[in-house]
Amino acid sequence: xxxxxxxxxxxxxxxxxxxxxxxxxxxxxxxxxxxxxxxxxxxxxxxxxxxxxxxxxxxxxxxxxxxxxxxxxxxxxxxxxxxxxxxxxxxxxxxxxxxxxxxxxxxxxxxxxxxxxxxxxxxxxxxxxxxxxxxxxxxxxxxxxxxxxxxxxxxxxxxxxxxxxxxxxxxxxxxxxxxxxxxxxxxxxxxxxxxxxxxxxxxxxxxxxxxxxxxxxxxxxxxxxxxxxxxxxxxxxxxxxxxxxxxxxxxxxxxxxxxxxxxxxxxxxxxxxxxxxxxxxxxxxxxxxxxxxxxxxxxxxxxxxxxxxxxxxxxxxxxxxxxxxxxxxxxxxxxxxxxxxxxxxxxxxxxxxxxxxxxxxxxxxxxxxxxxxxxxxxxxxxxxxxxxxxxxxxxxxxxxxxxxxxxxxx
Length: 410
What we know:
The protein contains two helices and 30 strands.
C-alpha cells in the first residue's frame, strides 16, 4: 500500500470515524490503519466514543503507529501499535482503572514511555515493545518527560503542586543502573529539552524566589549547570533540530495566559535575538531560520498561524498565514506543545509543511463534497500548508480531529 508520492512526507490522523489513517501531503487517498473491533462498527453501539482511537504517534522507522483506544465506556484504556500498510496490531497496555493520556517512542523504537492517570496521580511507565513488559519509572503531578538519546533513560520533571516539592531527575528505564537527581529544584516550565550534541546536553529551568526561573544547560545528569538566562513566569523552551538554538517564551501571569512573544538564544554564546513580541499560544521550529507560531485572535474568536523567518542579519520577518478554528485535540496539543513537539510533530522533518486539525477560515474555498455532516456543516478537517509557498491556500486532506507527521516518506 502507498500513502503518497515517495519523497514527500506522510501524515497520520484520526479520521471522522475515530480510526487511524495515513496520507501523503500530495493528497493521495488515505490508507486506513485501524478498524473498529466492535460488531457492527461504531454506529451500532451508539456513537464514536466506544472503540475510538486517539493520538497517533509514528515509530522512528515509520513502520508502526501507536495510539490509544477507548473501551466500551468511552474512556481511553488501551495502548496499541498497528503496522502502517500491514496487518499486524498488538495491544501493549490494557487497564480498567488507569487512563493513558500521553505516550512517546524511545529514539531506537524499542520502548514506549507512557504517562497515565490513576485517581489523582500521574505515573510514568516504560513498556518494552517486543515483550510488552511494563516498568514504573516515576510518579507526580504534574509530570513531563523527555527521552535520552540512547533510549536507556528519561529526563523527568515531576511534582511541584499543592505544597509538594518538584523534582528533576534522570531515571533509568532498564531496571539496572542508577538514577540521578538534579541538585536544584525545577522552575516553572514543562519538559526538559535534550540537545543532541556530542556528548548530549539538557536545558531545564530551576526555581528562584519571586516566580523567577533560571534557564540552565548541563550534562544529562544535571551536573555543573551553565546559566543561560533568567525569566519570570511560566516558561516554554524548545530547541531546533541542530541543537544550536533555543527558543524561549514567557507567560508572566502563569498557566493559561498567552506567552508574551519569544526570543531565540544561541546556545553556545548565550546571545539572544527577539523573534516576536506578539502574544502567542505555541510555537514550533521548522528550520534554524524559520519558526511558526499560533496566536489567538480574540476579536474573531479563532487562532492564526504566523511564520517567522530570520534573515541573514538575524532580523525576524513575520508573515501572517491563515486563520483556523482548532479541534479539542488540537487545542490540547497547542497547550502542551513543548511535550508534543518531538513526539507528535506538526511540522515535517524538512521544515516545509505544517499540518493541523480544525475548521478552515470561511474565506477559503468551500469544503469538498463528502466533508459535510447531515446538517450541512463541515466536519473538522486535516489541513496542510506549504510554508515555502505561503500564498497558496492550505489543502484539506481529509476529515479528522488530530494529525502528526511521520519521520520520513514511504
